[in-house]
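Tutorial, part two.
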Amino acid sequence: MSDATLNTIQDDPNDFAVQISDQVESFIVSVSEVAKGDDPDAAVPYLLLEVSQLLLAGGRLGAHEDIVPDERYEPDIGAEPDVDDLRERLATLLDPVDVYSEVFDPYVPRTAPVACRVSDDLADVVTDLRHGMAHYRAGRVSEALWWWQFSYLSNWGPTASAALRALQSLVAHVRLDTPLDELNGLDTDSNATEDRSLEDEAGAVMAAEIAEPLGIKNS
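Running the prediction step on this input gives:
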C-alpha cells in the first residue's frame, strides 16, 4: 500500500480501518493510564467502560466478512513490547479483587470454572492489539485488520469478554449493595491464614475505591 493511499485512509474518519484503529489505540492508551494508579478510586468503573467500548470494535470485526491480508505471510514486526510492567501495575491496583472465576467455553458441557485474573486478561488483550497496531502504523492496513479480526475470534475477544463480566460484576455488587461471597481459595497464590478473609478485603476495597466514584455513599 502506498503512502498516499494510507494517508487517504487515515484522513477519512468514516473508514472502517480508521474507526477500528482509533478504538484500539484508545483502549491501549487508557489502560496504560489506569495502570499508573493516579486515580485508583475510579479504576474499576473506568476499565469497565474501556473494555465495553473495545468489545464494540470487536463485535464489528466479528460481524465483518473475512478479512484477507495483502501478503500471504505475515511480515515481521520485530520484538513485541513487554507488558509485564503493565500486568504487575494492574494486579497491584486491583488487588484483592483481581482474581475471579470463569468458564472458558460456555458451549462445552460441564466445563469446570477456572481462576483468572483481570490484570492478566487486560495485559493479554493489549499484547494482541499492539501487534495489529504495529502493522497498521507501518501501512499494512489489511494485515492489521486481519490480525485484529483473527485474534478477536481466537483470543482477545473471549479474554476481554471474561474481564468485562468480572468488572461488571464488581460494579453490580456495589450498586446493588451485595457483598462478595467467600472465594474459597480461588486464588492459589493467596495466603489463607491472613487475619482478614479475602471476602472482607474485597468488600473493603469495593466500598472504599469503587462506591464513591459510582455515587454511592457509605452508610
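Residues 190-203, 215-219 have pLDDT under 50 and may be disordered. In part three we will examine how such features are distributed along the chain.
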